[in-house]
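Exam revision sheet. Question 4 asks you to relate a sequence to its structure. Input first:
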Amino acid sequence: MSRTRRRLSRHRTVTGPYGPVRISHDRWPAVMAVVDGPGLPTVTVLPGRTIAVDGRRVPTVHGTGSGWDPRRAARTCAVEAGGHRYELRPTSLFRARVTRDDAVVALVRGTLGAYSPVRSFAGIDARLTWVPDVTPLDVALAQAMVVAFGPGAPGALARIGLFWLEWFS
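Answer key, structure tokens:
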């Protein structure tokens, strides 16, 4: 991440457990999002590339976890920050959960519009439900991961359609 300041053209504010969480983002060609708020660390996201917490890059791993559905496992994203491992794991078509060291931090609910091909950020409209004992780092990272990588496993629609196509043929 460069240290130059960027002006992001679009802003959205969502409610978080520590007050309002501001999501600033740009569409193509910048495709960048910044999540911050009062008392929260600033998390910068370049979808599919990198996440930085207060200007320091954190390791991002895609496709972790062993599950019965390899497509869902492929949609999983993990980040190591602040001595903890955060993971965004789809649980159904438009739902996911964010965990910190295997303890649930937030439950995520998305929409079908999140996976439109013209969307720069899949999870910009997702709603997060927080557990009571979250930290400011939990809130900032969870919100940033959902914005960048999206809620749910959209491959489920194709899987259902192919199942019925195969069944009737």
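Marking note for examiners. Helices lie at 70-74, 136-149, 155-168.
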